[in-house]
Design a protein that fits this description.
The chain is α+β, with helices and mostly antiparallel strands and 183 residues long. It is built from 4 helices and 8 strands. Strands 1, 2, 3, 4, 5, 6, 7 and 8 form an 8-stranded mixed beta sheet that branches.
Length: 183
């Protein structure tokens, strides 16, 4: 995949609401402006990719209690030069969970989000332009907690608000639980 292919996917992606559409537009502008958009060295921000992993029954999602951000989130991470966000999301899902059979529900973009990352020792505040995909995995498989996580847990979708109030997480859960979503 290239910047141009990702731009085409984003241009044809239909956002679920006005806010998500505004973020889609921000991501398109960012990719068009910065050739190095997939690199962490782009200090204003960079493309990241995430995996919302659901179980086969579509009743639970796998979340990580992120070590640095102190929040329950979907799995994901930096592109590190890889211009294929689906590939990045798959890699991150496997690395951060230890799961071996994580399968994309679709190769199409599932969600997009732009969020600020606070400044740290060697990094200024910057933005993650996150491209998200929906994956499926067996929730009976053993999990392996990576250094990036404090904890991993399969969370019932109907209890998500006990773990996070992040609107982007709630939006993704609303998409998964919508009656027409998997038909």
């Amino acid at each position: 995949m290239s910047r141009e292919l990702l731009l085409e996917q984003l241009r044809t992606y239909i956002a679920s609401d006005l806010h998500e559409n505004e973020m889609r537009e921000r991501i398109i502008c960012f990719i068009a402006e910065y050739e190095d958009c997939f690199e962490r060295t782009q200090l204003s921000g960079h493309i990241t990719a995430s995996a919302l992993i659901v179980n086969k029954q579509r009743t639970k999602t796998l979340l990580t209690h992120h070590h640095k951000l102190e929040k329950w989130l979907q799995l994901g991470g930096h592109s590190d030069g890889d211009p294929d966000p689906l590939n990045v999301a798959m890699r991150e899902a496997e690395e951060e969970s230890g799961l071996k059979d994580v399968l994309p529900v679709s190769k199409k973009i599932f969600d997009v989000d732009v969020h600020a990352i606070p400044a740290r020792k060697n990094e200024p505040e910057h933005f993650h332009y996150d491209i998200r995909f929906l994956f499926e995995a067996d929730d009976a498989q053993p999990l392996v907690i990576s250094a990036e996580s404090k904890e991993l847990a399969w969370i019932p979708l109907n209890e998500i608000e006990l773990y996070t109030t992040e609107e982007s997480m709630l939006r993704m859960v609303r998409k998964v639980t919508a009656p027409h979503f998997f038909h």
